[in-house]
Amino acid sequence: TGKKTIEMNCYDNFELNSCEIVDESYEGAGESEIAKVKFVAEMTQLDSREQTAFMETSTFERAGKHIAKGAWLYKEGLIETAPGMPEPKEEEESEDEDKEESEVTVEE
User: Fold this and answer.
1) DSSP string spanning 47-102?
2) In angstroms, rounded to a whole number, what is the distance separating the alpha carbons of residues 76 and 31?
3) pTM score > 0.85 for this model?
């Protein structure tokens, strides 16, 4: 089923070994307060037992007082290569993609 496929492709197929907060900062106050939290997560892929890691800087903002008295809400995350991990390989564009991008028709 579709649900089973989604579960296999999500983080559910990983075991979280550790999650270390490496930086934390806050801006603003009250309902306009924003927090940025940088963490490194180390995981093991359950099927292959491959060890992997990533670093993420997550941004949170305060909800209004009407939501759990101003709870933190996840806004966005910037994922980076974790320290000590190899940089990801850049995907090479195919010649067809390059050709499509360069073929621009201007009508007058």
Assistant:
1) TT--EEEEEEEEEEEEPPTTTTTT-EEEEEEEEEEPTTSPPPPPPPPPHHHHHHHH
2) 18
3) no
Q: What gap in Å lies between CA 29 and CA 54, rounded to an integer? A: 30
Pairs from 28-32 (Cβ < 8 Å, separation ≥ 24)? 30/62, 30/70, 31/62, 31/64, 31/65, 31/70, 32/61, 32/62
58 Cβ contact partners less than 8 Å away, ≥ 6 residues apart: 36, 37, 38, 39, 74, 76, 77
Q: What is the mean pLDDT of the chain?
A: 81
Give the 3-state secondary structure of residue 13.
helix
pLDDT digits (tens, 9 = 90+) for 59-79: 999 987 777 777 899 999 999
Give the whole-angstrom CA distance, residue 75 versus residue 60: 5
20 sits in which H/E element = strand 14-27
